[in-house]
Amino acid sequence: MKNILPAVGLGGTPMLRLEASDAASLAREAFDGGIGLFHADSISAAERMAAGLSDVDRSEYKLMASVRSADELSDYLAAFATDHIDIALLATDGGFDPSGLEELKTIGRIGAIGLETRRLSDAVREAERGAFEVIAMPLNCLACDEELEAVSRIRACGVEIAALEPMAGGLWQSPVGAVAFLRSIGASPVFGVQYMWQLEQLLPTVKDVPALDDELWSEIHGERSRLAASYCRGCGECMPCPAGIDLPLAARMGQFIDSVEIEPLISADTERKMRLVGRCVGCGRCMEACRFHLPVRELIRANAERYREFLREHGGLE
Ligand code: SF4
Ligand code: SF4
């Protein structure tokens, strides 16, 4: 392994819900607490993080950006106010073309090229193809045997793993278990943090990685059996739905409600998509297709109910 990824990272998405100055303070507090990797999947998130890190020596932390094309990289360089991004994650499912990124790597604008994917089969195939140095994928204590097998295969190729959604999209409550488990399988968790109290819970585990002892294991197993059926990875393998439902959106709506910007969630388009959940004909196709054996119908219904409450709270269109 090249040790491209620091042990623990901070993701920028939930910061978009904060005032820019609060987001900058959070990023700075994270750096001071030992977090060495900052991941942005939008230009706004990059700007907010950069403001918090502006007076820190650039060699003391690493930047990771999710890019859809080589052209987008220059926007990230400007937003982060830097001359290089340590890890550029090609954020696309299918049709991978890292050629433009390779050129940027040659001239030192990129340190390493990674792939961000929600599909387990893509993650393993691309790692084994040798095209990427880092794979970023949803990974947390709810990982099933198939995901753990994938982790082993990816790592056997010398490819490092950034674990996105280390708190299972908000289902998991303990950063102690998350860090202990993910570090034990050789993955670097990238935490989305919105509140200072969340960061304060996380930071002690960064400086002093908790041991995965019997007590912690038994806690993790208990939580796994309680939560495993509720965690959708957003892979889309259950699509298409004959009723036209956007299943990865509907099955993860609760995660979005807890972490992403509110405006897109209360848009007419999102509301229209969520209304389609009521058209489920119960064919069961989604559940046959889901490799994680999720009860997709129940999951989308529960998320649609939560979404209705959310709309009412935020004066949405319903
Ligand atoms: S059971 Fe409902 S949600 Fe699943 S594929 Fe069939 S119509 Fe779509
Ligand atoms: S329900 Fe299953 S197959 Fe569909 S997106 Fe979620 S994890 Fe993937």
Number of strands: 8
- Helix count equals 15
What is the strand arrangement across the widest sheet?
Answer: 1-2-3-4-5-6-7-8
Q: Quickly give the CATH architecture of the largest domain.
A: Alpha-Beta Barrel
Model description:
With 318 residues, the protein is an alpha/beta fold. It has two domains: 9-224, Alpha-Beta Barrel (TIM Barrel); 247-313, no CATH class. It is 46% helix and 13% strand. The chain contains 15 helices and eight strands. It has helices at 20-32, 43-53, 72-80, 99-106, 120-129, 145-156, 175-184, 196-207, 214-227, 247-251, 253-259, 262-265, 268-275, 285-289, 296-313; strands at 9-11, 37-40, 62-67, 85-90, 110-116, 134-138, 160-164, 187-192. An eight-stranded parallel beta barrel has the order 1-2-3-4-5-6-7-8, surrounded by seven helices. α7 links the parallel β7 and β8 (187-192). α1 (20-32) packs across α2, α2 packs parallel to α3 and α7 packs parallel to α8. The protein is globular and about 55 Å long. The N and C termini lie far apart (51 Å). The mean pLDDT is 93. One iron/sulfur cluster (SF4) binds at residues 241-243, 245, 280-286, 296-297.
Question: Which key features would you list for this structure?
Answer:
318 residues, alpha/beta, TIM Barrel, 2 domains, eight-stranded parallel beta barrel, 15 helices, 8 strands, 46% helix, 13% strand, globular, binds iron/sulfur cluster
